[in-house]
Every structure is written in C-alpha cells, then in structure tokens.
Design goal:
With 137 residues, the protein is mostly helical. It contains 7 helices and no strands. The N and C termini lie far apart (66 Å). About 8% of the residues have low confidence.
C-alpha cells in the first residue's frame, strides 16, 4: 500500500465521521427551525419561545436565532424589540434585516421609511421574490 493510499484512508476515517455529524446536526437544526416557524405562523407564541430558547441556548448569535426571535417579538407586537434584533442581523444578512425593518415600519404606518428599507433589501438580493411581494403590499 502506498503512502498516499494510507494517508487518504486516515483522512477519510477521521474526516468523514465529523462531516457526517455536522450534516446530521444541521438537518436536525433545520427541522427544529421549521417547527418553530410553524409555531410562530400558528400564533403559538409561548411554545415557540420555549423552543427558541431550548434549540438556540448555546447559539444566540446565529442568524436563525435572531430571525426567529425578531419574528416572535414582531408577532407579540413588540416592534421596538423586534427592530433591535433586525439591527443585530444587519451585519450578517443585510437583505433579510432590511426586509424585516420594512415590515415593522409598514406596521407602524411609516411607509416612506418602510419603502426605503424594502428597496434596499431588493437592491441587495434581487432574486428574493418575497421582497418584491412585500414592496407591492
């Protein structure tokens, strides 16, 4: 057996299990995130908050946590709190943050400000049809 073959087998034996664990964790996280989104859409806000706190206990800086938390605050009518979460999202994903801020300003009947945010979201991500739909609303 050549040195390269041995080296490849060692790499495969060490890297593949780690890769599999990361993929499994990501899939589980996506399933839990989908469950939380469903709870939020069904206005089961207390259950959603418990799930958010449990799932993201060690990861309160992740984009998913910040987006879910901002939507929870928005659904509760805590627009100022929701906007603070969107401000924290801004450096991570400016387009999603601008979209969220546009929705919040629209709910507060601040349409000029809302339009500025949604136009920025569209400029940053022209492929997201939701931003165009939000602009039309």
């Amino acid at each position: 057996m050549s040195f390269e073959t041995v080296k490849t087998k060692i790499m495969f034996n060490k890297v593949f299990p780690l890769f599999f664990i990361l993929i499994s964790f990501n899939t589980a996280s996506q399933d839990k995130t989908a469950k939380i989104k469903t709870l939020l859409n069904n206005d089961e806000l207390d259950k959603a908050e418990k799930e958010i706190n449990f799932v993201f206990k060690a990861d309160s800086l992740s984009l998913d946590y910040l987006l879910l938390r901002s939507k929870l605050e928005w659904k509760r009518g805590n627009y100022l709190s929701a906007s603070k979460y969107y401000e924290r999202i801004m450096p991570i994903d400016s387009a999603k943050a601008c979209n969220g801020m546009a929705i919040l300003h629209s709910l507060n009947r601040e349409y000029k400000t809302s339009l500025k945010y949604i136009n920025t979201a569209i400029r940053l991500d022209r492929n997201n049809i939701d931003y165009f739909n939000n602009r039309a609303n």
